[in-house]
Design brief:
Elements (H helix, E strand, L loop, with lengths): L8 H12 L5 H8 L15 H11 L1 H7 L36 H37 L4 H29 L8 H18 L5 H29 L2 H28 L4 H22 L16 H6 L8 H21 L2 H9 L7 H37 L3 H20 L3 H28 L7 H8 L1 H20 L7 H17 L6
Keywords: Membrane, Transmembrane, Transmembrane helix
Organism: Bifidobacterium crudilactis
Subcellular location: Cell membrane
Length: 515
Amino acid sequence: MVSADNHNGDGVDEDVEKNVGDRNDKSHRRRKISGDSTQRSPVSTTTQAETQGIRMVAETAPAVAAAGAVSPSHSVDAAVPDRESAFMDMRDPMVSADGHRPNRKEIIRLTLGFTLSAVACAIPWVALSSLILPQLLDQIDPGTREAMIGTINAVGSVVALFANVVFGTLSDLTRSRFGRRSPWIIAGGLLTGLCIFGIGFTTSQTMILLLWCTAQLGYNMMLAPFVATMSDRVPDKVRGTVSGFYGAGIAVGQTLGSLVGSQLIGHIQGGFFMGAAVFAVIGMVTVVVWPRERSSVNMVRKPFSVKMLLLSFQPPKNAPDFYYALFGRTLMMAGYNMVTMYQLYIVKYYVLKDSGFNESDLAAHAATIIATMSIITLVVSLVAALVAGPISDRLGMRKVPISLSSCLFAVGVAMPWILPNALGMYLFAGIAGFGYGVYNAIDQALNVAVLPNPEEAGKDLGILNLANTLCTVLGSMLASGVVLMSGRNYMWIFPTAIVVVLMAAVLIMRIKHVK
């Protein structure tokens, strides 16, 4: 223990050097303790877990001294550093959790890979799920369109729920010369593309349900290890900025997805073929753009067992911040999905309900409004995402801007409720789009910050990414429920979504250990 009369910088250095420096020069250490100004030798803090552990303990000493005397009978309730934890490698904020210090070029490649993948995946996914698939179901059977889209989203999300956790855990355990994450990212993209390609050849609701659920399986096979890569390979110092570009990619991809989907409403089969092609190649492209993942062949791991796989579904214990982030994200994305998943039906049967257009003209006018909304959202969300990440890094804040962005999103959702016309939808696109851009820019950095154990990043981020699954189930249930109970009145989607996203903001603000 560091005694109270040794609480100064030289005393801390003495304790560190005692463990990692020259153990024979005891007289030199005595001179340093007594106040001698002899310059200390540099000590590594990026590769020696023992050194970092001692330094972590030593750094708490000044605060302890200020609070009162430190003695065996008056101790501080502080956790002892775990020398085996990946957190030890992150004491230097420019060293990633895998112990590697990436150079500037590698950070740029990582940022580019995250951004490119976010854009490329979001475009077809949004185009298909929010516009092309609903239009296909509307053509097959208009009387069951809300129930069918709700069923497909809910069942697909349950599949995604299990897939995300399972493949996150399996990627943690994978040992190959290509690394832990890369093989799953490539395989997941190929499976997703194959299933979406198949949907383009069927009008059977049963086959659509089966293929879409399998596509969800493949998508999460790719997504879980993809997100875990940010925890593995992106240093804490630049994670907010990288997360900002990733969020910008999602925002741009989603708005472009709405734009592309609006143009392909009349070419449904072509839309599914486009999505299949993008997903089939994006996994390979991302892995090539990133610096090559290091071999995991020699990494130590526990023997694989069914019990271990089942334990991967066990959420972390004694981690309240983790759960506030999980349920906060779930509610926020549920509110977002309530509007975006049903935006085609909202525009056709709420905004244009008294227009007098026939079905074909109604779809064309709805496509025009959605395309304009997409352009507005693209501009504001891109600006928001690119600005919010670096500002969050500079201020060292995550939860406050995320909560404020949720509130801003709620203001945007209120616009179509107040103005049930095209102007209301455009205001929604601008205000909610900006709030969502800020949210996406910082959310992933918050998720990594609340991880209880970086060594299980794949598993825990997989559980956090259950928000992407749960929000789809919750959003579908709430939206379809209020529409059907109100006699197909889409107006009630908006107040319900406002309540949901404001609840999300409250939960995020309850996080204690992240600013």
